[in-house]
Amino acid sequence: MNHLNYYRLPWNLTDNSISWLEPTAKCNLSCYGCYRKNEVDSHKTLEEIKSELAVFKKMRKSDGISIAGGDPLLHPDIIEIVKMVKADGQKPIINTNGIALTKELLTRLKKAGVYGFTFHIDSKQNRPGWKNKNELELNELRLYFAKMLKEAGNISCAFNSTVYEDTIHFIPQMLKWAEDNIDIVQVIVFILYRAVNNSLVDYYLGSQKIDMNELVYNEESEARVDMKAQEVVSVIRKMYPDFDPCAYLNGSEQPDDFKWLLTGRLGRHGKIYGYMGSKSMEIIQTFHHILFDKYLAYSSPKLTRKGRSMLLLGLFDGKLRKTLWKFLKNPLNIFKKLHYQSVMIIQPVDITTEGIQSMCDGCPDMTVWNGKLVWSCRMEEQLKYGHNLRTYFKNIPIVN
Ligand code: SF4
Fold it and tell me: 384 CA to middle of ligand 1, Å?
């Protein structure tokens, strides 16, 4: 896959699609791959949250705010927080494991203006009632939440799963499940597992070597912590040979790395007709910015079910034209709904061949700490050391 064949998403530090708000670090689960320490007494006050939103407003444009944590549904003022984000003109997206979500709470969140949910569900969460269930058995739980949102009406539904070496093979079938529920699942996200790799590099704060055992994401993991987005695409293509992304974010140190790799697919229950091309995504992002002065993050079900209208972009986009012909092979399809679904693959921090940490260039998950924007995936370093740590190879190779 040549990154130059895809659209480099225009998201950057000051003009992005999403920002990341952490009202609490408290959680009711302890997922294996989590990069945030579960802090029981960590609920932020509404004043603190207000000042963080003010930092976002001063420093950065974004379409949506991911309200994350810990698990934000555990925060006693979650309703008020959603109202504050909405009042700032941004789409409140709740990132949760769903355990605390009741129909009653969902009704109140909808009234407060929630735009969407991203449910974190995977097989390494030790989730009560779902222990030892594999990724496919967890589709039953995913369906429960997707139907819950459908019933509430017009709330964007996304699922994310951390992907490990021993779970990557489930991805094609998880995408099949998402295809079968394309009308009620708008986004599916696969996040590649990362943990500190003590065998390769040492971590420093200035000249001081840091014992990474002090940080939650130091797991001495036997599992690979360097899987790449292209590997996920290769696995997907075993079931979907035509699977083809349209846009990406590169690495801050590695230009041809796919740190965020976006695929847009169009289909109906149980059938994918084709994919969105880079030109269409460029047109959508550009026009959304012209109309709303910010790049597009999440679209509501009302918009994602307008797949037939999106096919008009086939005028500028060969890949979408192919989708159009495939869809119209049966002319009666013109009277049927066509749904758009996003598939996102996220490849967090990598160690480059120079031993440097490569982050997502244009990180959409920037959060606020001490009045400044920081990578949310490395918040533990900020909290513990006030800075991001640097890495150096254990045995820097001597280049003759
Ligand atoms: S740099 Fe970290 S926080 Fe930002 S998008 Fe990548 S993994 Fe997420």
Answer: 19
Assign residue 271 the CATH number of its domain: 3.20.20
How many structural domains does the chain have?
1
| Atom 8 of ligand 1, nearest CA residue | 365
Q: Whose CA is nearest to atom 7 of ligand 1?
A: 348
Pocket test for ligand 1, best of 162, 262, 375 (most atoms within 8 A of CB): 375
Parent domain of 122: 9-198+224-375
Q: Which residue has the least CA distance to atom 4 on ligand 1?
A: 363
Cα 158 to Cα 141: distance, rounded to the nearest angstrom: 13
With respect to residue 37, please indicate whether it lies within any of the assigned structural domains: yes
Taking CA atoms only, the protein residue closest to ligand 1 atom 2 is 377
DSSP letters for 124-193: TS--TT-TT--TTTTHHHHHHHHHHHHHH-S-EEEEEEEE-TTTGGGHHHHHHHHHHTTTT--EEEEEE-
**Is residue 223 within 8 Å of residue 32, measured between CB atoms?**
no
Distance 376 CA to ligand 1 centre (A): 7
Global pTM reads 0.96
Residue 205 lies in a domain: no
Rounded Cα–Cα distance for residues 231 and 169 (Å): 10
In the reported structure, the alpha carbon of residue 91 is separated from the centroid of ligand 1 by a whole-number distance in angstroms of: 19
Regarding the beta carbon of 360 and ligand 1, being less than 6 Å apart is answered yes
Task: Please indicate whether residue 191, judged by its CB atom, sits closer than 6 Å to ligand 1.
Answer: no
Query: pLDDT per position in the chain (400 positions), as tens?
Result: 999 999 999 999 999 999 999 999 999 999 988 888 888 889 999 999 999 999 999 999 999 999 999 999 999 999 999 999 999 999 999 999 999 999 999 999 999 999 999 999 999 999 999 999 999 999 999 999 999 999 999 999 999 999 999 999 999 999 999 999 999 999 999 999 998 877 788 999 999 999 888 887 766 667 889 999 999 999 999 999 999 999 999 999 999 999 999 999 999 999 999 999 999 999 999 999 999 999 999 999 999 999 999 999 999 999 999 999 999 999 999 999 999 999 999 999 999 988 899 999 999 999 999 999 999 999 999 999 999 999 988 866 555 5
Q: Is residue 381 part of a domain?
A: no
Three-point CA angle 198, 204, 208, nearest 5°: 125
Q: Is 90 helix (H, G, I), strand (E, B) or coil?
A: coil
